[in-house]
Every structure is written in C-alpha cells, then in structure tokens.
Design goal:
Low-confidence stretches: 295-352
Protein name: Aminoglycoside phosphotransferase
Keywords: Transferase
Number of domains: 2
Helix content: 40-55%
Domain Aminoglycoside phosphotransferase: 2-203
Mean pLDDT: 84
Radius of gyration: 25 Å
Number of helices: 12
Organism: Amycolatopsis methanolica 239
CATH topology of the largest domain: Aminoglycoside 3'-phosphotransferase, Chain: A, domain 2
Distance between the termini: 42 Å
Shape: globular
Largest sheet: 3 strands, antiparallel
GO molecular function: transferase activity
Strand order of the largest sheet: 9-10-11
Length: 352
C-alpha cells in the first residue's frame, strides 16, 4: 500500500488525474489500507461505451487517454518498482503451468521473432485499460488500480489498452473509444514523440498473450483445488477467447463456417461444462444456501412467503409468470406486496 500511495502522489504531481490520497497505513487490524477521496464518474465499460450520457465525450477519449498515458510515463521514479523482462517473466509463468496450447505457442514464437527495441524505461501503469478509468461527462476523471505498476517500456500501456478483451465488443481498438491513430496522436502531443504503430502492435499482441496466460493461471488455481471459486472458473473459460483473439491479431484467416469441423462433444479447454456446473453448485451450497435456508416456506400448499431482504425473488417470479403487481395487502402482522400470475390464482406475498 505504501508503494501504491507513493505512485498516486507522484501521478498527481505529474498531472495524471487520480483520486486525492487521504491516508494509508501498512497494518491496521492485520491488514493494510489506503483511503482516497471520492471521484464522481463511471467505470463500468458497457455503460461508458453505450450510454447516451457519454455520447459527447466518447469520441475525445482515445486522444485524451494518449495524453494521460504520456504523463504517466513522465512520472518520476518511485522506489520499489519492479524492473524485469516482461516477456520472459510471462513465459516463466506460462511454463510453470505446464499446459502448452498450440495457439499460445504460435503467439510466443511471433513475439520472440518480432520484438521491437525498447522505447524507453519509464514508470508503466501495468493495467491501463477501460474498467480502471473513471470517466465523467467532461472526460477522464481518474486513473485507478496502480498495484501492477512497474518500470519498463512505456508502449506496454498503449498496447494493453488496445487488447481486444478491453474493447468490450466495441469495434474501436483504443479501449473501445477510438482508433489507434487517435490514441497515438494524443500521446505524441504530450510526449513529444509518436510511437511506431508496429511497436504498439507488438505490445498489443503481448497483452493478448499475457491475458491468456493469466486466465490460464486462474483456471489452474480453481482446478488444482488451491482456491475453489466459481469466479476463477469463469475467468478460466476466457482462455479460448484469448486464443481466438491472439490468432486474429496475428492475421490468421478465419475458417469459413461451411468448412469448420463438427462441434466437439465438450467445450474447448478447461473448465469443461461439467466442471463449470460443479463450480456453480459449490458456490450455491457454500455461499448462497446458508443465507437463504429459511428463505422460502410453503403455506397451505399454494402460498409462499419470501423472507429475502429485497423483492428480487418475487420480481423474478413475476417476470416468469407474466403476472402483474396487485398492490399491498396484509399477511399476518406484516405488510406485504403481492402479484397475480397468469392463472389468476392466489398471489405469492413478499414480506417488506
């Protein structure tokens, strides 16, 4: 936390929009903490990329992100930042997993054959992407999540922003907001030099390979039993998505639908379908059922009372039945709201 606090201070001094640091400490009740001021804005990618509220600012964001990235790379050094060969460090992690995949091997071979010269040795944010940015009606309000910062090639941040996974289905490569040219124009405006497109593309391919390896590691953590988690299992399913994106980034032509082989009997890679179902079942048993043990009780065979803290389950039942709310009524000593389904029979009252 001390290093992240130092990064936030240095970023603020360099003109990078970040939340103002309020306090931090290495150990309070056994855990470190860091407190910053609240920053108004939105971080959820699909809202930023689709909501009308951000329609005016979206076309300006690619260039603005380029300018902000240049300011990050102009930050003074912060003690304790790692400085290692990014590709070889990632290959070590990939080899430790002992799960070689043909598409990743192809990507790794390309990365080693086309590696560009370093553009510099600066502070690198390490996770500069849509989802770690607070955007307001006037533009970028804050850059978040500095825990992966390190020293290295500044173009890594630009390539990572352009990785397809962080476009969230937008056709625009620079974080889903604009073109690579707009991003590099903004960077050149603040940095005083324009990065070469080929070098940025190398870091984009590296970023796709990196995310594939990280997804593979998350799947391994779950499947090995070290940390059983439905979230890790779900992230693990994204390995095949990154395999596809990696081959696409390398220019591999798509296979025509009529020439594609017959579908496999199960999902490509792991977790398999059965392993995913098992992960969901474990989550329901461990995290959901204990909190809803007394959730729904049957009364007189046709009435059920929802004891949940919200009306979510009743709203779900309402949508399923196509029914409508019929107003408020009494159930015992508590006020309830009820709905009537298609059959027109008795409602399911929900305690409030």
């Amino acid at each position: 936390m001390a290093r992240e606090a130092a990064l936030i201070r240095a970023a603020r001094e360099a003109g990078v929009p970040v939340p103002r640091l309020v306090d931090h400490a290495p150990d309070v009740l056994g855990s470190p903490y860091l407190i910053t001021e609240h920053v108004d804005g939105e971080t959820i990618p699909w809202r930023l990329l689709r909501d009308p509220e951000f329609a005016d600012v979206r076309p300006k964001l690619a260039a603005e992100l380029g300018r902000v990235a240049a300011r990050i790379h102009a930050m003074p050094d912060v003690p304790g930042l790692a400085s290692a060969d990014r590709l070889e460090s990632l290959v070590e992690l990939y080899d430790e997993l002992a799960q070689p995949l043909p598409s990743l091997e192809i990507g790794l071979r390309w990365l080693r054959a086309h590696r560009p010269e370093l553009a510099g040795n600066t502070v690198v944010h390490g996770d500069f992407r849509t989802g770690n940015l607070i955007i307001g009606p006037d533009g970028l309000a804050a850059v978040l999540d500095w825990e992966l910062a390190h020293r290295g090639d500044p173009l890594e941040d630009l390539g990572w922003l352009c990785v397809k996974a962080w476009r969230f289905s937008s056709p625009l490569p620079a974080g889903g907001f604009g073109t690579r040219e707009e991003l590099l124009d903004g960077y050149a405006e603040a940095a005083g030099f324009r990065p070469g497109p080929a070098a940025v593309r190398w870091w984009e391919v590296f970023g796709t390979f990196r995310w594939a390896v990280l997804c593979l590691r998350q799947a391994d953590r779950h499947l090995s039993g070290r940390i059983r988690s439905v979230e890790l299992a779900a992230v693990g399913r994204r390995v095949c998505e990154q395999e596809h994106d990696l081959l696409t980034a390398l220019g591999t032509p798509a296979v025509p639908v009529d020439a594609a082989p017959d579908p496999a009997p199960d999902l490509h890679g792991r977790p398999t379908a059965a392993e995913l179902v098992e992960a969901v079942a474990e989550f329901l048993r461990a995290d959901v059922m204990p909190g809803t043990r007394d959730g729904c009780r049957s009364r007189r065979g046709w009435r059920r009372t929802c004891w949940a803290s919200s009306h979510a389950s009743c709203a779900w039942a309402l949508r399923r039945s196509g029914g409508t709310w019929t107003g408020s009524r009494r159930w015992g000593s508590r006020r309830t709201r009820s709905w009537r389904g298609r059959c027109g029979r008795a409602p399911w009252p929900c305690r409030t």
